[in-house]
Amino acid sequence: MGQLADRMLRAVKLDPRLYEEVEADATAMPQAMLVVVLSSAAAGIGSMGMAQHPNLILGTLGALVGWYIWAFMTYWIGTKLLPEKDTKAEYSQLLRTIGFSSAPGILRVLGVVPFLTNLVFMATGIWMLVAMVIAVRQALDYQSTARAVGVCAVGWLIQLLFAWILFALMAGSAGQV
């Protein structure tokens, strides 16, 4: 099995050693980005049966931008607001580990089965969140999983606020055209 496939499988299995490995491997950035792209494309395909499914290309670009922003917020929150005494991290380490935490999202492609869509998206969303907590804990050298959960939760809330503002601005400008 190739290195990328092996890493993705280990990410899906929530292997903390995988996150340590990609944190230390500066050459893993293209792989992390590919995992994010595959996960978002799977979500686009899996949501095709929904009444309003997202545009695949825009959804993929949005996922890449979201990954970049969430990783930055996680880096900032985890290293500046809520660090532990042993916390040492670089932004690129968070990008790599958080990128791989989206590996379970590839299963969202199974959402094309109409009666499975909501279940698949809910289960993979939870799975990805658990993977992200592990990724953050490893990348920020936390001893406390609760602190990693807190960092992820604060970052998620901030990201939701930004998304809400962006959608509100887009809706407002669409009404003025």
Question: What would you note in describing this structure?
Answer:
The chain is mainly alpha-helical and 177 residues long. It has one domain. Helices cover 72% and strands 0% of the residues. It has seven helices and no strands. Helix 2 packs across helix 6 and helix 6 crosses helix 7. The longest helix is centred in the last third of the chain and has 31 residues. It is globular. It starts with a helix and ends with a helix. The relative contact order is 0.15. The mean pLDDT is 88.
Please give the count of helices.
7
Tally of individual domains? 1
The percentage of residues in β strands lies in under 5%
Structural class: mainly alpha
Q: How much is the average pLDDT?
A: 88
What sequence of helices (H) and strands (E) makes up the elements?
HHHHHHH
Largest sheet composition: none
Report Rg: 16 Å
Poorly predicted regions are none
Distance between the termini: 52 Å
| Broad shape | globular
Quaternary form: single chain
Strand tally is: 0
Helical content, roughly?
over 70%
Give the SSE layout.
Layout: H1 3-12, H2 16-24, H3 29-46, H4 56-81, H5 91-100, H6 117-139, H7 145-175
